[in-house]
UniProtKB/TrEMBL annotation, chains A, B:
InterPro entries recorded: Aminoglycoside_PTrfase, Homoserine_kinase_II, Kinase-like_dom_sf, Pseudomonas-type_ThrB
BP GO terms, sorted: threonine biosynthetic process
EC number annotated for this UniProt entry: 2.7.1.39
Identification of the protein by name: Homoserine kinase
Alphabetic keyword roster: Amino-acid biosynthesis, ATP-binding, Kinase, Nucleotide-binding, Threonine biosynthesis, Transferase
Aminoglycoside phosphotransferase domain residues: 27-253
Sections of the chain in a coiled coil: none
Reactions listed under catalytic activity: L-homoserine + ATP = O-phospho-L-homoserine + ADP + H(+)
Lineage: Bacteria, Pseudomonadati, Pseudomonadota, Alphaproteobacteria, Sphingomonadales
Broad enzyme group: transferase
Pathway: Amino-acid biosynthesis; L-threonine biosynthesis; L-threonine from L-aspartate: step 4/5
Length: 319, 319
């Protein structure tokens, strides 16, 4: 949850006046997005999200996100495209922050996805990948495989988070370094498609949101992240075969994975579990217990990692 | 800002199904209200606020608020009335909390009210008082004059908040106890009508919100609270005569104050400034600096108190 910056009503009216979206009716800070301040803005023409970019999203990256979301929206993906003002500008300034007015998407994030919802998100991810493949831009994945060792080192004492975690992470990093594939199909991916970044109405995906970790990486790694975050019990111990098969079936409707991708999925999923295990461990150590942002327990990601390490993990990716 | 409690989408759908308000389209936690969790709920029929009551608002007080806001709304006041479900119930339970679905009101809280906005809020306050006078319910004002000494004592070391504050508060409490009027016109009042509890579109008041401090007290004290919060510079040192006159003029359009009320206004305003000075000092001492809720500086209220103590304070209330 996050509203870090106040917006003056007069400044807001001036900002909205740059656009052909009517005049302000209401503007409420919303508890969505961890890194930015977000407001649900209603005008006489409709609803929009106003995002003020705080720290982690650098202003220099904003044109990439504007172009990416515009490209995906133009290709029919339900993503929150930045609106352009009358001069064609999407990136503004208000309250001393870079800011965008963004398309509002209906829907609610599922808490406990049903198999039918997993199938829909698999298909939406696949359709998004087909559109992303023709996007000309690219961006280093600062949360990708090459950076995991540095994140582990920046965390400090991993054993203080979970006893025995340091040895486990060291061994896993060595294994992944030795086996990480070099040549799978790649383009810009979402890289963080957890259920709270998907909006749904029933079984229909109405929004793929929060692209601020989007970067260039293997498309199959994106599928692995989605697998790790949609198909497990809350404690991470059990992968639900019905949800996993549904996710894979939905994705397969849009994308025919290569044999090399299929073979790599268990490994990529180990990487996905490790990536979120490491960043949660990092935030666990570095976020005060009573801070504005809720810390997420790393343990369920460790449980997923162990499941993906098992000799029969390939079966979790059967269509 | 506050969203303390998560709402499961299935539970939300079941709750909304009790009402004749369509089906859920979107539900986003909003950073409004300090004591409760609030969500902006959109259905196929319109927009609503979903409030989950956390700690300070006791479930036992909820029927009072439901009745009060229903009465005020029925009398044409722009207040957020609780919606009743198909069985006539306004108070529900979700996520282990008492909860209400509440009418959505457009508008934005002014940051720096213009005189024309002060006049509008004065008139809206007066109209609300005319409606409240016929409301049969009542409620002890736990933040009223009789309770200020206990709040001061519960704060602890007032001098740690502002040097010299303990002596000043002791003297002011003694003065107010000696002079507080006993027989002014009274009924249920808002008691906290700061600008962030008023929604406006331009010069039009579209919402009087957050009635959770509403209680039985002098109507002129409510006007004094509004005077203290709408007519001063941010630092509390200067009362703007144009804003103050406009506020009084707007109120006078709806309510003809008695001579005793007019005479008491400077004293009531000293009480209003002291009340918010004390509760801010209390929260300053008892809220961790990095907690979810932003602490508000008590100093600007002390500056207002000093201004209302001045021999010429009566002039601030001229119409």
């Amino acid at each position: 949850m996050a509203v870090y910056t106040h917006v003056d009503p007069d400044d807001l009216a001036a900002l909205v006046a740059r656009y052909a979206i009517g005049t302000v009716v209401s503007c409420k800070g919303i508890a969505e997005g961890v890194e930015n301040s977000n407001f649900l803005l209603e005008t006489t023409d409709g609803r929009f999200i106003l995002t003020l970019y705080e720290k982690r999203v650098q202003a220099g990256d904003l044109p990439f996100f504007v172009d990416l979301l515009g490209h995906l929206a133009d290709h029919g993906c339900p993503v929150p495209a930045m609106i352009r003002d009358r001069d064609g500008e999407a990136i503004q300034r208000i309250s001393g922050r870079a800011a965008c007015i963004i398309q509002f998407l209906p829907g609610i994030s599922p808490s406990h996805p049903m198999p039918s919802q997993c199938e829909a998100v698999g298909a939406a991810l696949g359709a998004m990948h087909r559109a992303a493949a023709s996007f000309p831009g690219g961006r280093e994945n600062s949360m990708g495989h090459r950076h995991w060792r540095a994140i582990a080192e920046a965390t400090g004492d991993l054993d203080a988070v979970i006893s025995g975690l340091q040895d486990l992470v060291d061994a896993e990093l060595a294994f992944l370094d030795a086996h990480w594939p070099g040549d799978l199909p790649a383009h810009v991916i979402h890289a963080d498609l957890f259920p709270d970044n998907v909006l749904m109405l029933g079984d229909r995906v109405t929004g793929l949101i929060d692209f601020y970790f989007a970067a260039s990486d293997f498309r199959a790694y994106d599928l692995a992240v989605t697998h790790a975050s949609w198909t497990f019990s809350d404690d991470g111990r059990h992968c639900d075969p019905a949800r996993a098969q549904a996710l894979m079936r939905g994705y397969a409707r849009e994308i025919a994975l290569t044999d090399a991708e299929v073979a790599a999925l268990p490994l990529l999923a180990r990487g996905a579990a490790l990536r979120f295990l490491l960043t949660r461990a990092h935030d666990w150590v570095h976020t005060p217990a009573d801070a504005l942002v809720t810390r997420k327990d790393p343990a369920p990601l460790l449980a997923r990692l162990r499941r993906y390490q098992a000799h029969d993990a390939a079966a979790l990716f059967a269509v």
